[in-house]
Specification:
Elements (H helix, E strand, L loop, with lengths): L1 E3 L28 E6 L3 E10 L2 E11 L5 E4 L6 H14 L2 E6 L5 H4 L2 H6 L5 E4 L22 E3 L13 E5 L3 E2 L4 E2 L2 E5 L4 E3 L20 H6 L12 H17 L5 E3 L2 H8 L16 E3 L3 H9 L8 H6 L5 H11 L6 E3 L7 E2 L2 H6 L22 H12 L17
Parallel strand pairs: 5-6, 6-7, 7-8, 13-16
Antiparallel strand pairs: 1-2, 2-3, 3-4, 4-5, 9-12, 10-11, 12-13, 14-15, 16-17
Helix pairs in contact: 5-7
């Protein structure tokens, strides 16, 4: 695989002026890496985002169509750098013809589709059905999508102009209470590549390449106390990444304690660096010595898995729908999977993909054979109980009881 970035990018090349709409780090400065996954056929565009330096990759995928043209799956922030890297592909393979908004719920993906589409005014925009917004359920043009060339993805991919080259399957909407969850998975036949958004991940043990362009978040989370100096070493980058992964998937893993507000402010006075980028010396995290074991269980040897958040709060609200969708995807002869987050591409067979959803079957354990400590799910289960108790979320739906349709 080859990696491309802009030649000597400036701050203006990486500017994302609409960051206040979804205020995630790195805010108004978003670097982009283009990776050629399959020569002359498939490319990923990597950026990153997060909260409190808990940063993870976010990715769009571009596939080449025949006889010419490009299809874009799940756009990222259309910074000048990102658009320049797309224009390079257009010069060789033809214009961006189709843009797919692949999620119903993921605002961190949806926010980029309208601005990206406006940079390619001849492209048709296809949107996953059952879109919603909060607190007001606004029509798609009001969400920034170009009304004259935006349409819902039809149920059958053969009804689209790209249907002979790219198949897709719509996950039936899962009623979460506040609104539905859904996404569209696409299969590029020529390259045997499956594209998904949030449904499946593989967690790398080493920090993703895009995060190494700005290693401060990795090094920040590698500290064991507020008084530790930030030292840039491969070991510290790896340590910081693995802790970030635990944060990202569990919010508060069982191997983490949090200092009191008084302790934080007292210890911040002793921090070697107290700049704004270092949160003025504030560092509340106290990792227990056995945190690497928690990461090893989460990592699961880099195998495909459904993220704990989706297992606990989403997919178990519609197990039959999710499993049926996964079985449909497993009929496609893909050789690799490109999710919108974390590791990519992932070499995988349809059978390996389907195994990741075995946790939905009533006779299997919730952890799907993984040795993830049950205590790491505690905060997620508390969130689940709170949402159900306040009538915001629906209870879990067992297999055998079809989930209520939205």
């Amino acid at each position: 695989m080859s990696v491309a970035t802009s030649t000597l990018p400036t701050r203006s090349d990486r500017t994302w002026p609409f960051w206040p709409v979804v205020p995630l780090y790195p805010y108004g400065q978003r670097p982009t890496q283009r990776v050629e996954v399959v020569k002359d056929q498939v490319w990923t565009f990597e950026q990153f985002q997060g909260i409190f330096y808990v940063v993870v990759p976010i990715r769009m995928t571009v596939v080449r169509l025949e006889p010419k043209g490009l299809l874009v799956y799940s756009p990222v922030a259309p910074t000048p750098e990102c658009i320049a890297l797309v224009r390079e592909l257009e010069e060789r393979y033809g214009p961006v013809q189709y843009i797919i908004m692949s999620t119903v719920t993921g605002i961190e993906h949806k926010v980029f589709v309208g601005p990206f589409a406006r940079r390619f005014p001849s492209a048709q925009v296809y949107v996953t059905p059952h879109q919603w917004s909060f607190p007001l359920n606004l029509p798609l043009p009001w969400l920034g999508l170009p009304g004259d060339r935006t349409q819902l993805l039809p149920p059958d991919s053969r009804q689209t102009p790209f249907g002979k080259q790219v198949d897709y399957a719509l996950l039936p909407p899962i009623n979460l209470g506040l609104g539905p969850f859904g996404e569209t998975a696409c299969f590029h036949r020529a390259s045997r590549t499956l594209m998904v958004t949030d449904a499946i991940v593989a967690i790398p043990a080493e920090p993703p390449a895009i995060l190494q362009l700005d290693p401060l978040p990795l090094l920040f989370h590698a500290k064991d106390s507020p008084t530790d100096a930030i030292v840039d070493t491969p070991a510290n980058r790896r340590k910081g990444w693995q802790r970030i992964a635990l944060f990202a998937f569990y919010f508060r893993p069982s191997t983490l304690d949090v200092a009191t507000t008084r302790e934080m402010f007292r210890e911040a006075q002793q921090a070697p660096v107290r700049s704004r980028r270092h949160y003025f010396g504030l560092y509340p995290f106290r990792w227990q010595p056995d945190w690497p074991q928690s990461f090893a269980a989460l990592h699961h040897q880099g195998q495909l898995q459904v993220a704990p958040i989706l297992k606990t709060l989403i997919f178990n609200r519609g197990p039959e729908e999710v499993l049926g969708w996964a079985q449909t995807l497993a009929t496609w002869p893909f050789e690799r999977i490109i999710p919108a987050h974390l590791e990519a591409p992932i070499a995988a067979t349809p059978d390996q993909f389907l195994e990741a959803f075995d946790f939905l079957r009533a006779e299997l354990s919730p952890n799907n054979g993984q040795s993830i400590p049950e205590a790491d799910f505690n905060l997620l289960r508390q969130i689940e109980a709170l949402l159900i108790g306040r009538g915001i979320a629906r209870p879990r739906q067992p297999m055998g009881n079809a989930a209520e349709k939205t």
